[in-house]
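Re: 4-nitrophenyl phosphate structure - here you go.
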Amino acid sequence: MNILMVCLGNICRSPLAEGILQAKAEALHLPWNVDSAGTGAYHVGELPDPRSQAVARKYGLDISDQRARQFKAADLDHFDLIFAMDRSNYQNILRLAKTEEQRQKVKLILEFTGSGESNVPDPYWDDNGFEHVYQLLDTACDRILDMVSEEVS
Ligand code: 4NP
């Protein structure tokens, strides 16, 4: 299973989503490859935002080996599932999709996982937003594991 998490900058939300889901999959001995990317190129090559690294560390995750990269059309072929953090990311990914098969791979992470909210709020301008983002993504990643495990069993 190849799973891609996508936000705008690939420094705040999607690196957390990548780290959380990869750790959960590894704990269950699932051979999943989880990656992340941003629809924008502003932060390509950068480490995750220090505030994302800090909240990850608080929950025992080290995401400091990640580097930001931009989403590319080929990701729609390589990955089995692509989770957008918000509607804007979702629309930007779909714009690059050429086939129905590609479109079917793209999900809005919170809608797919049954949360009351539909967008993971962008915490870039809000130092206090990172804990909430972590909790939303932690729950969403549990749902992803449940749903994918059900589908393949
Ligand atoms: P992310 O957050 O999409 O969760 O990585 C952002 C990071 C940077 C910017 C916006 C959002 N920015 O405008 O530079």
